[in-house]
Specification:
GO terms for molecular function: hydrolase activity, acting on ester bonds. The chain is α/β, with parallel strands linked by helices. The chain has eleven helices and five strands, in the order ααααβαβαβαβαβααα. It has a domain of 191 residues: Rossmann fold (3-Layer(aba) Sandwich). The protein is globular.
Length: 299
């Protein structure tokens, strides 16, 4: 009887103790219940030295527009309005232009040999014709045939080395003008021989009578060059230095894109615009009387 009288009193006590123990145990995670930040956002809980500051993260992250632009290769910046070449810039040399180069023995003394790879590099077909002991008076028929056969875009003439010592250089003016007339309305450069002695006036004849061809003063542009044992012809190094100076000058003297209505020179016909068009002579040298008449006839 006495033990049963204590049962009602012990039951609440036992229930209290069981509830206290249950509240002390950690709760179990339930499905759909957010887990603690320590386990899910591990980058937030990373040690301070491994964190990236907001300023650095903002600088390293590309802006949306920049990131999109970086996906495509940048387009080449136009060189002028609507992608046109600026007025004073020469256009690229299109491949398969024809360059005819004639001359005396100086042409084959390292000059054409050094010039050939340069012409090949710009895609030009380089035709060289040379004759030893030749003069301005001996090339008219040969040049006329070559121009008719090749229809060159550019003609280069290396003559005069055998006429440096003439007692009457003015007598060659007509021969020079005849050669220039055969070239016709196409780009042309007359290259003077690099002098090994003082000339008697032939260089000045070339300067005055080769227009509208351009005149390249080899001594002025190339300076002293090394020679073969004869002391006259350039050696390989001298020919290379001579050709280097000439080619730099030639590229610099190419004309810009033609303006609307501008008369265009003749050439091979392989290009809409002759890639070897040259700027006019800066000193404004006028052609001889026969050339002026020819120019008027062509116009």
């Amino acid at each position: 009887m006495r033990s049963s009288s204590f049962a009602p009193l012990l039951a609440p006590t036992l229930l209290y103790l069981v509830g206290a123990c249950a509240s002390a145990a950690p709760p179990e995670a339930q499905p759909g219940t957010p887990a603690s930040a320590t386990h899910v956002q591990g980058d937030v809980a990373a040690p301070p030295e491994a964190r990236t500051s907001p300023a650095v993260a903002a600088a390293e992250a590309p802006a949306p527009e920049a990131a999109g632009a970086s996906m495509a290769a940048p387009a080449a910046a136009p060189t002028g309005a609507a992608g046109e070449v600026p007025p004073e810039a020469a256009p690229p040399i299109e491949p398969r232009s024809i360059v005819l180069h004639i001359g005396d023995s100086f042409l084959m003394a390292g000059f054409s040999q050094a010039l050939r790879p340069k012409m090949k590099a710009v895609g030009a077909l380089y035709e060289v014709r040379s004759e030893q002991a030749s003069y301005t008076t001996s090339w008219h028929l040969k040049l006329a045939k070559l121009v008719g056969d090749y229809h060159p875009d550019l003609v280069i003439i290396n003559l005069g080395a055998n006429e440096v010592t003439l007692t009457d250089p003015a007598a060659r003016a007509d021969a020079v003008e005849r050669l220039v007339k055969i070239v016709g309305n196409r780009p042309c450069v007359w290259v003077s021989p690099p002098l090994w002695r003082k000339d008697t006036g032939i260089i000045e004849i070339f300067r005055k009578h080769t227009s509208p061809c351009r005149f390249f003063d080899s001594d002025a542009h190339a300076g002293p060059i090394s020679r073969q044992p004869d002391g006259i012809h350039p050696d390989a190094a001298g020919g290379t230095a001579w050709a280097d100076a000439f080619f730099r000058w030639l590229l610099a003297e190419r004309a810009p894109m033609p303006r609307e209505g501008e008369a265009l020179p003749k050439g091979s016909g392989r290009h809409a615009v002759n890639p070897w068009r040259l700027r006019p002579e800066k000193n404004g040298a006028s052609p001889g009387p026969s050339l002026q008449k020819t120019a008027q006839t062509q116009l």
